[in-house]
Each structure stands twice: as C-alpha cells, then as structure tokens.
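[agent] plan:
  1. take the single chain provided in the ticket
  2. run structure prediction with default settings
  3. attach structure tokens to the ticket
  4. add a short note for the reviewer (M.T.)
[agent] executing step 1
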Amino acid sequence: MSEQHNLVLLTFPDTTTWRHALDGAQRLPGLRMAAALERSADGVLEIKDTFTRGAGVATVGSGLLGGLVGLLGGPVGVLLGFAAGAALGNAAEEHLATEAGAALIVLSPRVPDGGAMLALEVREASPGPADELAAQYGASVERIDEQTFTEQVRAAEKKAEEDSTGTGEES
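[agent] step 2 finished; step 3 output follows
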C-alpha cells in the first residue's frame, strides 16, 4: 500500500484525554506536525500545544552550510555566512508556521464546545496506528487528504483577502 499524506483529526468530546493522546501521536509513524486545539464550554478556542518533527533543522542546517561557504572569506566570512544561512532557514520555517496557522483557523469550527481536537499531519502507510490511538482515547477520527485540505485553506485565504480589501461580493 502506498503512503497517503493526510490530515488526521482526532476529536475529543471533553478536554481530559487529549494530552495523553498527543504523547502517543508523537510516536505515530510518518507524523510530521501535530496541534492540539481546545474549546471552552463558552466557546473560547485555544491552541494548547504543537509539535513539529525536525523543528529547527532548516535554520541550523542552512546556518552551517552558510558558514562552510563563508570559509572562503575567512573568519568574518564564516560568521556572515552562518548568519545569512540561518536567516534564510528561519524564514523558511516561519513560512511553514504561517501556513500552519491558516490551517488551524480553517479547522477551528470542527472543535466542539467543551471539547478538544488533535490535528495531525501524517504520511500514512496504513490508517491503523492513528485509528488505534483514537480508539484508545475515545476520540472520533476524520481524514482529509493533503490536496483537498490545501485547497480548502487556499479558498479560505482568498476569501479573507477579498473581504479585507473589499473586492468580495456585496450583500
């Protein structure tokens, strides 16, 4: 079976078990990112925790590569190369974080009042491990393939941009 790049949503009817489920989710094969959203009984939504496998790797790796290139310029070149490389790597990670934030906004209506949701970005060879995790903690499971969800996020971003610039349809 080929891998599927999915967004797996684990929805919890209350806020008591998602923390343990997040610990288990971090051991799922193919997990790339996870976010825990919790909504109070009065409707206030909070992002309670996040996890990104390999966070910081782009920043450090780019910095080291820049430092190696900077060896050609001597000690000052190493310093400047490392700083420039780290800045570029950090910019790439910030871009990913911004996209993840937009995705969480799109997901927010799915979090029930008084409940919680784990949003897991996973490359799944099989749905079994995530389904077992959900069953263990009493969560419902919903899967959205990467392409479909990306289209939903882009459509929401476009609508928000049109609404903010006033180019959307008037009522």
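[agent] step 4 note for reviewer: The chain has a mean pLDDT of 76.
[agent] ticket updated
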